[in-house]
Amino acid sequence: MADPISSSAAGPRDTTFRFFSSEQGNSYAKHRLTYHPSLYQIILEHHVSTGGQLGTILDVGCGPGLAVRDLAPHFAHAVAIDPSAGMIAAARSLGGVSSSQEPIRFEISAAEELGADISPPVRPGSVDLVTAATAAHWFDMPKFWPRAAEVLKPGGTVAIWCSGNAVIKPSTPNAAAVMAAFDRFRDKLEPYLNAGNLLARELYVGMPLPWTLDVPVAAFDESTYVRREWNTEGSAQSLDFYANAGALSMDAMEKLFGTLGPVTRWREAHPEAVGTEHDIVRITRREVEAALHEAGVEKGEELVDGAAGSVLMLVKKRFNLTSEARVS
């Protein structure tokens, strides 16, 4: 598979979410799918079984805090950062606590800073687990990895994950026609995709890793690197990647699609269509409804069931750093 992003790619590439208002952040939190507990269990079991501790989690590109709110109860301290003031405002309004009942600390900071620019800053060697939930495709990875190596404790973990395109399950009536409507939706959004979207679509194939950079970050151990895929062609495993996926109603599908970055950019380019039958999401909804009605589904009972190809990448910081690794 072709590498859509070279190891020298620089960010930021997100031109949408970082400018969200607090209202948009709250809408995103309400309608976006959350992650399944089984995904968190895989991350935590790997982290602990390879020597990781449960002191501090740092969630990067946290948005309204969907992932860190679920993971924080496993850690004594939790910090979450995002470059968007609107997203952080939404995250703070929703709250969340760590295992010590300490409130999650939500702060405005970019992935390339990892809290170096907040007060008090995230200290070197203070973090056990760094997470990035459907966010790393917006990072400047050649800057992210050295900073991650700095803040992590020896034996700390970086966990990065995302999902790609959805596939309609055969259990959905007239599934082929519904899938065709989804395909047309994606085709119409092509002009509104950017490099980050393409990287996520390819499930982070070509994601710059510490040892692939022009200046490798030797603090990370390539020999312990784990990449796992689910619900993809050739993958041996399936995973409920999202906790609240299941069969979606038409209202839920429409609101979920409205949280997508390319849809936001389409709507910015077509303001006259927003809220009308000419909106790109509404058009897709009507096409899906028509396909379901064709199969005999009654109006008001339309549901679609799908699965998403997904990937999890786990990178460990070495326990014993050589002098060469410390320098690089």
Features:
disordered C terminus; globular; 8-stranded mixed β-sheet; 328 residues; Rossmann fold; alpha/beta
Count, helices: 11
For the biggest sheet, the summary is: 8 strands, mixed
The global form is globular
Fold-level CATH name: Rossmann fold
**Helix proportion range:** 25-40%
CATH domain class: Alpha Beta
Q: How much of the residues is beta strand, in percent?
A: 15-25%
Count of strand segments = 8
Q: Summarize model confidence as the mean pLDDT.
A: 87
CATH homologous superfamily designation: Vaccinia Virus protein VP39
List the secondary-structure elements in sequence, H or E.
HHEHEHEEHEHHEEHHHEH
Radius of gyration: 20 Å
CATH architecture descriptor: 3-Layer(aba) Sandwich
| Structural class by helix and strand composition | alpha/beta
Low-pLDDT segments, ≥5 res: 1-12, 323-328
The count of domains is 1
How would you describe what is shown here?
- The protein has eleven helices and eight strands.
- By secondary structure, it is of the alpha/beta class.
- The protein has a single domain (17-327), classed as 3-Layer(aba) Sandwich (Rossmann fold), CATH 3.40.50.
- Strands 1, 2, 3, 4, 5, 6, 7 and 8 form an eight-stranded mixed sheet that branches.
- Helix 5 (141-151) links the parallel strand 4 and strand 5 (152-168).
- The longest helix has 15 residues, at 175-189.
- The two termini are 30 Å apart.
- Mean pLDDT is 87; it is low at 1-12 and 323-328.
